[in-house]
């Protein structure tokens, strides 16, 4: 098992700058991610959903059989809570 935890990172940056290289290097069969908490105060929900979509597309291109687990988010502030609730609603929708 290999863990690529990066506390404080943003989904938008991971999708656009890092994930493709990480996938090529590690060739995972299972990916679990909990991303978006750090994005909600800096990006729109559409931007974050776009990053999620890009990540899933990159993962599927890397390994069509990959298991992808999206973990629910937690928040600590009321403004962030609103953004996280909206994001989780969009992901579940």
Describe this structure in words.
With about 90 residues, this protein is mainly α. The chain has one domain (about 10-90): SGNH hydrolase (Rossmann fold, 3-Layer(aba) Sandwich). It has 3 helices and 2 strands. The chain has helices at about 10-25, 45-60, 80-90; strands spanning about 30-35, 65-70. Strands 1-2 form a two-stranded parallel sheet. Helix 2 links the parallel strand 1 and strand 2. The radius of gyration is 13 Å and the shape is elongated. The termini are far apart. The model has no long low-confidence stretch (mean pLDDT about 85).
Summary, kept brief:
The chain has 93 residues and is mainly alpha-helical. The protein has three helices and two strands.
* CATH architecture name: 3-Layer(aba) Sandwich
Distance between the termini: 30 Å
Question: In what order do the strands lie side by side in the largest sheet?
Answer: 1-2
How would you classify the helix and strand content by structural class?
mainly alpha
Instruction: Using the coordinates above, name the CATH class.
Output: Alpha Beta
CATH fold label: Rossmann fold
Give the uncertain stretches in residue-range form.
none
The count of helical stretches stands at 3
Provide the β-strand percentage band: 5-15%
Number of domains: 1
